[in-house]
Each structure stands twice: as structure tokens, then as C-alpha cells.
Amino acid sequence: MTILNRLYASGGEDVILETLEINVDGNIHWLTRGWTDFTATLENGIQQSFTACGIEIALPARNADGTQDLNFAICNVDGVISKAVREAIEGGKNASLTYRCFRSSDRSAPAERPFTLAIKSGYWTAIEVQFTAGYMNVLDTAWPRARYTLPEYPGLRYIS
Fold this sequence. Notes:
This protein is 12% helix and 40% strand. It has helices at residues 3-10, 80-91; strands at 16-24, 27-33, 38-41, 47-53, 55-58, 69-75, 95-103, 115-124, 128-134. Strands 3-4-2-1-7-8-9-6-5 form a 9-stranded mixed beta sheet, covered by helices on one side. The longest helix is centred in the middle third of the chain and has 12 residues, at 80-91.
């Protein structure tokens, strides 16, 4: 039984601290859900401070349907993160997030292995921003990736 499973089952005074690392074209925002900033040690041994803000996180389902998306909403009072992510989505730049969770009693390493997802889309209002991030959708991907078609490879016409 993992530490988090034990925490979910038994409760107690220990709580789970959920964090998001939002990376927009090299500009990184470190956020945590709640009202208190904290510092924790990442999986690579570096200490990082997380800024508290209003976040709601819906983790991806663990199933085999091929589209495992993480949905999250962030308070849009200052608009800094929403502006950066909106510009990245509209401009075709890279935007990703890394989800980590820590136990409140042990911030020396993440409680589970972190996972990184690409930010795919977003929805903006004056007070809230909702984003969808996910792994690459394998079901909607052509295989092989390089398509050998006649307009690109005219010599294919003569191969029998």
C-alpha cells in the first residue's frame, strides 16, 4: 500500500498538498492549491517555493480510452498566467504543466511520481480560467507519422 493510499484511507492530520508547475515557453509558474505558500523539495533535489492561489484540479481518469485529460481552473484575478497560456495556445508555442503532490508532514520529495502534460485548450472568463491538459492522444494519431503520398513523393507511382 502506498503512502497516499494509506493517507486516503486513514485520514488524520496529514493532508495532501497539490501543486502545478506551469511552463509556458520557458517561463515557469509554481502554484499550489490553498491559502498558504510553502517550500518543498522536488524529485531532482532542488527546493522550490509554491505560491498559493485558487486552483481546482480534476485528475485524469486511469482507464484505457486513449484520452486522459487533466482539467484545472485557476483564479484569474491578476490574469498573468491566463494571458501567458492564452498567447501560447493561440501562437502555437509550447505550454505544459507538471502535477505534483506532497504530504504536509513530508515535503522532502513528492508523495507520488510527478507527471507532465501538454496544455491543449482553455476557456477564459473575467474571474476564472479553465484549462485542459493531456498526454498525446494516440487514438487520433496517424501511423506511420510520415505519410508517403504522391504529391510529396511522385516516384511512388512507378513502384509496383
